Amino acid sequence: MVMGKDEIGQHTVQQYNEDLENLHRGVLDMGQLVLAQLDDGIAALASGDKERATRVVRRDVDVNTLEVHLDKECQRILVRRQPAAGDLRLIFAVIKTVTDLERIGDQVGHVARAVLESDLSSPNRPHAALAHLADMVRTNCASAMDSFARLDAAMALEVVQADAEVNREYQGSMRQLLTYIMEDPRITSSALQLAWTARALERIGDHAKNIAEYVIYMVHGEDVRHISEEERRQRLASEAPSARGQGGPGAAGAAQRCGEAISPAQLCTDSVDKTVHNMSVPGCTRPSMRTRIGRSKYVLIIKIIKNNEL
Prior knowledge:
Radius of gyration: 24 Å
Structural class: mainly alpha
Helix content: 55-70%
Low-confidence stretches: 241-294
Number of strands: 0
Shape: flat
Largest sheet: none
Number of helices: 8
């Protein structure tokens, strides 16, 4: 089943809607803060601005605070709402995404500290070797958060694929730094410092890729981590016939395409209290079932649908 952005907050319990929407917005707010940190870190690296680098280091605590807050919100929703289907995937994706965002913040802190510790007055400091790598990493991070905001699996897949180019650029930057050292051994210290900085940027790219993979999981329900490009395409191709928005959005994840028969196996039956969304079966009118029901009524509805007697 494919999950779309408009399916967040489609529940009969308004507070549940607000909880999920606030959680989604909270991740985006954290992403904006981390992107701002990344921008400042890259700018400080290019210009040698120690004051800006210091601000980056100090603001890292704000990123950590947001991670703790969002983790607690996820725990609260899991305990109180017992989400299923797309909602549960959203919670899992948020938990993992905020962890990667926090680690991006840590890596940006490493970049800022490298600026503070390096000899920024040296005219031979080869920071230009990292300029393109930094731009690529920044672009991937922004695209990963954009795909999370839109729940756009296609954009997320592009970020995953683009990480290979980031890795190649990192390797090229390392070779360039080694060339600088051989040409002028006097810059060895600053070049080695930049080598660690390049590693931090490459790791930021890996975290952006991770976030994009969580988006794909959230939308398609497919775990595409640690598999080949060919296998990834095959798994996602199996989801192609499903149009976005046709999957089950609510706690039960039971909404199906209008006009198709619904089997009991397609309904989520792993909880005593689930939300059944508007459904349609052949020869029937669309009944309104947007109510919280108990197990006995839930089983009765399943039997009625199975026998096509509703």
